[in-house]
Amino acid sequence: MQRLMTSASPKPEKFLRRVQQSDLFMDRISGLAAGHVRMVLATSKVIRDPVDTDARLLSHHPSIVAMWHGQFLCMPLIKPKTMPVSNMVAKHADGEMIGRTLLHFDMGLIRGAGAGESGKDRGGAGALRAALKALKGGTTVAMTTDIPPGPARVAGLGIVTIARMSGRPILPTAVATGRFLTLPTWSRMTINLPFTRLAMVVGDPIHVPRDADEAEMEHYRQLVEDAMNAATVRAYELAGGNVIRTLPDEKRPPRKSGFLLSVYRGATWAARPAAMTILKRRAARGKEVPERLGERLGIASAPRPEGALAWFHAASVGETNSVLALMDELKRRNPTLNLLLTTITATSAKIAKERLPEGAIHQFVPLDNPAFCKRFVEHWHPDLGLFVESEIWPNLIVEASDAGVPLALVNGRMSQRSTQRWRRLSSLSQPVFSRFDLVLTQNRRIAKRLKSLGARKIVVTGNLKYDAPPPPVDARALDDLRGAIGERPMFLAASTHPGEDEIVLRAAEMLRAAVPSLLTVIAPRHPERGGDVAALAEARGDTVARRSAGDAIADTTHIYVADTIGELGLFYTLAEAAFIGGSLVEHGGQNPIEAIKLGAAILSGPHTFNFTETYETLGRFEGFRLVHDADGIAAAARQIFEHAEAAAHMKRNAAAAIATLGGALEKTLEALAPWLPASAPGEAAPQPELLPHDAP
């Protein structure tokens, strides 16, 4: 009986939706909204710019009245009583509610809207035809300029197209009140409140030539956007309201400081005297280049070249490899542009020396101390700073931003675990991430994570590693290694983490029962663990050789520990099967792209949350084998060794999967174009901000 009653009762969500979409509900709410707008007018002091807004609107009638999304609640009040107006509203429940509200102010409706980034058909073509017909018939058309779901405050081409085809002018308008509420929507929907000042602004008309080409259309689109921003700022100035509260996140000026950021900056400043001691100890362990320790203190070892300078910062080998193709292409397209790359590790410095574009400069990044970072920025004075992936150093970012350097995060990456840690430190993360003028992310998941941390202007461009060529492999070292291995089949466990080596060693023992001549290579993610890996293997009775010790590979060698840096490409090239580590433990996996591009068949454990998009795509293409334990590794690797045709098919599938994820390089270049420095020294491209960073 209970089940019968449950199945017969409508779900609360569906019932609520039906109520909200009913005519009775719509009529009641739209009537209340219209009454609220009239109360705002009746209780507020009205200020107009120009003084007679009716005269300006009527003198250009019929026209196209432009407004921003989120700023339209009181727009009906700007309409002259004698001027016929039709409003363009979308075909959805919110649009229906807005439309019924507008009917209370004697305004007509045009149903439909542009598709925007969603790509959905929202009746835009029909709305275009209806708008042109209305203008031709002597009716002004009012419409929002930006398109859902954003970005907000960015004019679309739709309004410019209507102006070109109709020959009628666009009038940028804004209505603001000193008191208001904002809702956390994509457009920061603003609810105007009564008993305040009410400002109405009508800007100068913008005429779009009928023969405007694509470049001219973009010029007029930007002209409309700038005029809309100016009208909005002016309206809030007249009303005495804070326009910054109405801005979407990507348009807001960065948050300058926070409690934890101040604590961090103070603590790192106080630790300055210990810097050289720390660096010397790291140098003794091979983690620093002794003759270049000054660079880690912000003391440059090279002069700043004349002309514009783009500065890239990457952590180590992986990040450097991902951005080298971008640097090459920037240099090819902008031969006079100077390039500076900063990294942390000694290995990345070696790669920079070998692979940077001609004339590019490498420096070690300064320790994240306010004094060292300020010294670095003052010497190099870059025209643009580009941080790669997840290289977030608060002092370096703050000093560069305070010096007026436009900052971008390229190939942005942030795991869910790291996001949660940053969120707990919001008074550190918000003022740091909000200082990036542009954030280019690998996918939409990461974009949402970075937005929650304070990032403002975000564009999803994809992963640059998909477009990067495979890392070059030293030909002599490859020949030597191939000669040492001979005809023996090779299984590689790459980038392993603690807890995985034991599993790999058990799998290797099982594999040797089927493939007696097998050589297993284990490359720990952190080479300093090489001794621990070797000890584990020796405890099992395996014959072990270590690359860092210069041990030769003998015919009796079972396990070869590749505990060096920057040589993984050698082993990917020779391996028939490669297990990608960090995936049998909850680390989140490692990047499989280099292995695929160098021709290895891929095995991975289930914990790949740091590379979700990559592995989801590989899975759809059947481009890798999922394993959970030693038995699974041994069985999958054995299939690869014994069934060459099936292994080749899996490799082709993996390559095809990676190819579908390409295109990030061109998207990144396109997004960076407005920010690239001009050729003159210190002259940066104009920053497309509504307000300057130091706006009150």
TrEMBL record:
Name of one Pfam family that matches: Glycos_transf_N
GO process annotations (BP): lipid A biosynthetic process; lipopolysaccharide core region biosynthetic process
GO molecular function: Kdo transferase activity
Enzyme Commission number, as recorded: 2.4.99.12
GO cellular component: plasma membrane
Transmembrane intervals: none
Stated role: Involved in lipopolysaccharide (LPS) biosynthesis. Catalyzes the transfer of 3-deoxy-D-manno-octulosonate (Kdo) residue(s) from CMP-Kdo to lipid IV(A), the tetraacyldisaccharide-1,4'-bisphosphate precursor of lipid A.
Organism phylogeny: Bacteria, Pseudomonadati, Pseudomonadota, Alphaproteobacteria, Hyphomicrobiales
InterPro entries noted in UniProt: DUF374, Glycos_transf_N, Glycos_transf_N_sf, Kdotransferase
UniProt enzyme class: transferase
Keywords tagged on the record: Transferase
Name of the protein in its database record: 3-deoxy-D-manno-octulosonic acid transferase
Top-level division of the source organism's lineage: Bacteria
Active site per database record: 319
Pathway(s) the chain acts in: Bacterial outer membrane biogenesis; LPS core biosynthesis
Organism of origin: Rhodomicrobium vannielii (strain ATCC 17100 / DSM 162 / LMG 4299 / NCIMB 10020 / ATH 3.1.1)
UniProt site (Transition state stabilizer): 389, 465
Reactions it catalyzes: lipid IVA (E. coli) + CMP-3-deoxy-beta-D-manno-octulosonate = alpha-Kdo-(2->6)-lipid IVA (E. coli) + CMP + H(+)
Keyword Transferase: yes
Domain DUF374: 80-152
Domain 3-deoxy-D-manno-octulosonic-acid transferase N-terminal: residue ranges: 291-468
